[in-house]
Amino acid sequence: MIVAHLDSATLARTRLAVSPLAEALNWLELTVLRTSHPVYGAPGTQARHALRDPDVALLAQVIGCRSHGSTPDLLTPTPPAGATSAVLAAQLDTVAATPADLAWRQLHDPQFSTAPLPAAVRDAAHAGTFAARAAAGLARFWRAAVADLWAALKPVLDADLAERSRALATDGMGRLLGSLHREITWTGTALLVDKPRQTQSSLADTELVLTPSALVWPYLSVQLADPGGAFLRFPVASLSTPARGPAHGLTRLLGGTRATLLHDLDVPRSTTELGRRHNLAPATVSYHLTVLHKSGLVLRNRDRHHVLYRRTDRADTLLADA
């Protein structure tokens, strides 16, 4: 159980914010671990090709050597206050500015990993270049693999942010904190987080940032022991796993959501209809259909005021083989 005591000054400084860098790090993790997101599917070829970049590969090695599922704090800076459009650049600057000795300590912290660090990570930490290379790798991975996906993620995150803000105005901070995730309990003076590790901390006059996440969904990520970067990253409430599932082999090839949509395109359907049938945000459907269209698996035709999608003969063959 994680226990964090919050004083009144910390509650007064608690705010909501979107973290583009956190979404990028989650997408990179899915790429490295070769797994899929329950809603957004598996990262595509652009994400995998980005791993060829030396700085992105360095981050991939950090993700691959974790033994406790944690991440060095320098890679998860809290989003600063201000316009969302400027947040990513500010977060990357924060990563790059991490002192070399702090980066070294975090990478060698047993809470991060009990296994020996990969040679490339150890050498970068020893040379004092890890933070700058990590920031460069995150920026390159964003451009290669996340920038296009962001068009689908941002409306979902903004909508959740607006809903939480309304809940804060209506019910107050205590009720909001207790509603973020089933693993969180607010006692009136402390946050209790149902996690395997046992920690206790007290946040006094500390900024606590509450961050909705689409790519951490349906899990909860917390950092409550660091007064300089305390956050709760909680899953957005609007996502759900598609109800219908296609063949297992096709799911592994395309990712769950894209395979589900392709399975349902035996007749022409619009993004609105597909979103309604599978409980997905229209922006999410649009993103996956764009990927399928670029891959030659769906056709796109306009019917008066609607754009309709239908799978191609190539997709029919793929489904039959699956």
Apparent shape: globular
- Largest beta-sheet details: 4 strands, mixed
Q: Segments where pLDDT lies below 50 for 5+ residues?
A: 243-247
Query: What's the structural domain tally?
Result: 2
Q: Total number of β-strand segments?
A: 10
Domain DUF5937: 145-238
Organism: Solihabitans fulvus
Protein name: Helix-turn-helix transcriptional regulator
Pfam families: DUF5937
Task: Give a verbal description of the structure.
There is one protein chain. The chain is an alpha/beta fold and 322 residues long. The chain folds into 2 domains: 234 residues, no CATH class; 74 residues, Arc Repressor Mutant, subunit A, CATH 1.10.10.10. It contains 14 helices and 10 strands. The chain has a 4-stranded mixed beta sheet. The longest helix has 42 residues. The radius of gyration is 21 Å and the shape is globular. The protein starts with a strand and ends with a helix.
Per-chain topology:
Blueprint: E1 2-6, H1 8-13, E2 15-16, H2 20-33, H3 45-50, H4 54-64, H5 87-96, H6 100-107, H7 119-127, H8 130-171, H9 173-179, E3 184-186, E4 190-193, E5 199-203, E6 208-213, E7 221-223, E8 230-235, H10 248-254, H11 256-263, H12 271-278, H13 282-294, E9 298-303, E10 306-311, H14 313-321
Parallel strand pairs: 1-5, 2-6, 6-8
Antiparallel strand pairs: 1-4, 3-4, 7-8, 9-10
Helix pairs in contact: 2-8, 4-8, 5-8, 6-7, 8-9, 8-13, 10-11, 11-13, 12-13
InterPro entries: ArsR-like_HTH, DUF5937, Metal_resp_trans_reg, WH-like_DNA-bd_sf, WH_DNA-bd_sf
Organism: Solihabitans fulvus
Protein name: Helix-turn-helix transcriptional regulator
